[in-house]
Automatic annotation (TrEMBL):
The keyword RNA-binding applies. InterPro entries: Exosome_comp_Rrp42_subfam, PNPase/RNase_PH_dom_sf, Ribosomal_Su5_D2-typ_SF. Signal peptide: none annotated. It comes from Spathaspora passalidarum (strain NRRL Y-27907 / 11-Y1). Keywords: Cytoplasm, Exosome, Nucleus, RNA-binding, rRNA processing. This is Uncharacterized protein. Coiled coil: none annotated. GO terms for biological process: exonucleolytic trimming to generate mature 3'-end of 5.8S rRNA from tricistronic rRNA transcript (SSU-rRNA, 5.8S rRNA, LSU-rRNA); mRNA processing; nuclear mRNA surveillance; nuclear polyadenylation-dependent mRNA catabolic process; nuclear polyadenylation-dependent rRNA catabolic process; rRNA catabolic process; TRAMP-dependent tRNA surveillance pathway; U1 snRNA 3'-end processing. Belongs to the RNase PH family. Its main location: cytoplasm. GO terms for molecular function: mRNA 3'-UTR AU-rich region binding.
């Protein structure tokens, strides 16, 4: 076959990104721009909202929510609550969030993917080791007592209505709240690292909006001395150790905010390091990885969580592929992260 018979084969950019992501990435970098048409150190803009309608209706036990949008990716994070009994003295001084991540790709049901489980585990460990939620903040306030009266149901709380409250001297149990996070990802076009950043941001934003409800038990046949009216002067012993706890969703004015160690401007930023196509001895730092080319072709990565005070909460390094993580690139990434925290993510 002669050279005249050979024809050059060309592919559209989206096809080339799938079959040869490294070639596509190198072609763009040689032109001084990334495949997503952003500059090397440019982040996608982020928009944060909350779904107040769900909170007003207390839909499905939702007590806080956050909607994070970045480019074509939307993340909806809802926080629900569970209650556990405290057994002995808890050695852990800090709590965390128990997240379930679901990346919606049109599939119906099935077991969670490795990516979803890894994201959930990373979020759980990062929030825990960052010491964002003191265990004291999750302690249930003094439990109320609901009494059915002629004009309806009345709930008494010992720290709010001491004069009218019936002592629960036999109730020796204590409880703590457990925060459950349901994270749904729509139209995922970001890398796993960038997806962690958005999920972490949604958790921090939702935690700052979280208000814990009051819990109460209903006066029932387990009451040793029954009180029929709030005007009664009887003050009896209430056996509540076997009573069922209820969430007081009717009196939202009694909800209370939890004290968090979340510093203002806490944000996670991710970076990729790739060899320069013009100079093999140099590496290029890329921020906020996105797209097929950057997801597949860039193996050396960094993730840094900073806040407005300049503190660093977390640094994660993966040195793989051709791009080497040098101290100079690490310093550059830290400075970019600090500047991003001070300026905000919008």
């Amino acid at each position: 076959m002669s050279s005249a018979d050979l024809k050059q084969v060309s592919f559209p950019p989206d096809v080339l990104a799938r079959i040869a992501p490294d070639v596509s990435l190198e072609r763009h970098l040689s032109l001084g721009i990334r495949p997503n048409l952003r500059n090397f150190t440019e982040f996608n803009s982020i928009d944060i909202k909350s779904n107040n309608q769900q909170l007003q209706e207390n839909y499905n036990n939702i007590f806080a929510s956050s909607i994070v949008k970045s480019g074509p990716t939307t993340i909806i994070n809802t926080l629900t609550l569970g209650v556990v009994e405290n057994y002995g003295q808890d050695k852990d001084k800090y709590g965390t969030v128990y997240p379930v991540v679901e990346i919606l790709r049109g599939r119906m049901g099935g077991a969670p993917t490795d990516e979803e489980m890894i994201l959930g585990q990373d979020l759980y460990e990062t929030i825990y080791h960052s010491k964002l939620i003191p265990n004291e903040s999750l302690q249930v306030k003094p439990i109320g007592l609901g009494i059915k009266e002629e004009d309806g149901e009345t709930i008494y709380y010992p720290d709010l209505q001491e004069a009218d409250y019936i002592p629960q001297s036999e109730h020796e149990k204590s409880y703590s709240f457990v925060i459950l996070s349901s994270i749904k990802v729509y139209s995922k076009h970001t890398s796993t690292n960038s997806l962690f950043d958005l999920c972490y941001l949604s958790c921090v934003d939702a935690l700052q909006k979280l208000k814990l409800p009051r819990l109460y038990i209903m006066d029932s046949i387990q009451t040793k001395v029954s009180v029929k009216s709030k005007k009664s002067t009887t003050r009896g012993l209430i056996s509540t150790n076997k009573a069922e706890l209820n969430i007081d969703t009717a009196n939202k004015q009694h909800y209370y905010s939890i004290e968090l160690n979340i510093k203002e401007g806490s944000i996670s930023s991710n970076y990729g390091i790739v060899k320069s196509p013009d100079n093999n001895d140099e590496s290029i730092l890329l921020t906020d990885l996105q797209g097929q080319e950057e997801e597949s072709a860039i193996l050396s990565r960094m993730s840094i969580i900073t806040n407005k005070t300049g503190s660093i909460n977390r640094i994660s390094l993966i040195n793989g592929g051709d791009g080497d993580i040098s101290l100079e690139l690490l310093r550059d990434a830290i400075e970019i992260s600090k500047r991003r925290s001070k300026e905000g993510v919008m």
